[in-house]
Amino acid sequence: MFFIVYNLIMKKISKKLCKNIFLASFPIVLGGSLLIPGMGIDSLRFINSVKKEINIIIPEGKFIINPNSPLYEFVLDNTISKAYVNDLLSASDWSNANEAGSKKNRDAYIKYANEWYHSKWDSEIKNKKEIDLHDVSFDMIDFDVVAAKKFFNSAYVQSGFEWTFSKNGVVDFFNWKKLHEVYKDASNKQKILNQADYDQFVQYQNNIVDGGNLAYSIGGYISNSKAWLLNIQKNAIKNAISMGVLEDKTLNEDDVKWNVKPTDFRNPNYITCIYIWFIGTTILFLSPFWTSAWCYYWYYKEKGKK
């Protein structure tokens, strides 16, 4: 019955009408299609590549913290909790006063990282559950996404559609100075340095007691930062092995000899994403003028034929 009614309606609609409706709405469809992905789509691809690497170096079920170990809570509340702190601090630019360059911001990062850790793992620790470091690593990725929205530009983890119609998106689009800042920041984030050179700029001291302290990081370079973080996790796991806190007592330092490189990830191309987003947003904002002009032209063209 539906198809019969549909066919009757379509017969009454001329091909010319369909063509003009399509042409009138084409900029809306094109602009919307271009702005939808945004930088968030490339961040998602990057995140998926990080997850793939984690599955290789810290596979599920291999590095499990034994709840029966007398050092169970000590390792978790020091080494593992500090991993969340180092994650957020290492991703931030310490030369930027709007990021970790401000002690106030660093304190806020540390507070938030600790709150996240406790909200996620306190109940597990209280109930003496096995803690798989694979699960911890994946949870830190979720932590990265939420922290990015809270402390940095949320455009990195949003679709272009979300960014455009958020308060910051509208400001970024119409404010050329702000848009230039976003462009410059995105350019730095997608840049890849030689990992050895990057590591030299990071001031970090491994400490078996409190999980290691990060004193300075140039941050920004997303692939370098993540490679550095995964590589220092070797220290945490080595400490856990030496303290005998893992369930598998056959594990040794040979099991943590990985050396993650930034090229192991699918590096995001944020600049291209910004160009596509900007073009799509421009087309979408101009589409009412096009649609109005086309409808006006079509109306008077048809009227002239009568």
Rounded Rg? 26 Å
Flag low-confidence runs.
1-6
* Count of the domains: 1
Mean pLDDT: 84
Largest sheet: 2 strands, antiparallel
Q: Rough shape?
A: elongated
Query: Roughly how much helix do the residues carry, as a percent range?
Result: 55-70%
Q: Termini distance?
A: 36 Å
Q: Could you give the order of the helices and strands? A: HHHEHHEHHHHHEEHH
Task: Please state roughly what percent of the residues sit in beta strands, choosing from under 5%, 5-15%, 15-25%, 25-35%, 35-45% or over 45%.
Answer: under 5%
**Class of secondary structure makeup:** mainly alpha
Q: How many DSSP-defined strands? A: 4
- As laid out across the biggest beta sheet, the strand order is 1-2
Count of helical stretches: 12
